[in-house]
Please model this.
Amino acid sequence: MIIVSMAPGALRMNSVKIFALATMILALGATRVGFAAEMIDPAKIVDLTYTFDEHTIYWPTEKGFVHQFEKNGDTPQHYFYSSANYSAPEHGGTHTDAPHHFSADGKTLDQVPLSNCIGPAAVIDFSARAATDPDAMLTVDDIKSYEAANGQIPDGAIVVARSGWGKYYPDKKRYMGTDKPGDVAGLRFPGYSAPAVDFLLKNRRVVAIAIDTASMDPGNSKDFPVHRLWLGANKPGFENLAHAEKLPPRGATIFCIPMKIGNGTGGPTRIFALLP
Model:
């Protein structure tokens, strides 16, 4: 038998070191397991964002997206370097409407919580009606029919109104109803109805709404009741979603991540979904 004598202080110090080392090993192992468990299948990622370029659709009163290279080639030191400037209105292409867009006291884009930008996607399809009526609106009956088939819209959801209008993008005349600069009166495309949005605000805990058209209100709206109701409740809206037809009615998680513009009323947004 070998007996090792050690001062009490040294024993306590070695115990602390052993405990710390064991904790570190366990944490490292858990991290490695976590990485393996959380790998995302690329086939389950759906990009719901239109590219920002010269084809990006904006409101008839707005200027378009401008991108200009400052440098784009080899340097005198013989390495490649590229850098550019861009300018764009806040509201166009795939973008966020911050509450301040229609609410004097509403949050600006930089103040919109990410918790309002991520959630289970409740995709309500009204494309059959919109196919024959450019003024079609998502209604309370559409919501109730959806819930009868899929269950109640869950708390924290982002409701996506799918009109099927994305099939026309970027054909401005088909998508907007007009391609004439300044022609607001000629706008024709589907949107939400005010009663549907009022129903969601009063009866469901939805964090945001989205749509695959240029506006939450239909194109022929003159006083934007949907914008005033929804943004007035200090909740964001997302417009011009791409490829909404790739989303299932339920089960996907949607991520709507806007550019964090200080004092912004809206801005370009990368929207994507993770399929179940």
About this structure: Residues 8-37 form the longest helix (30 residues). The CA atoms of residues 113 and 159 lie 17 Å apart. The two ends are 61 Å apart (CA to CA). The longest strand covers residues 66-74.
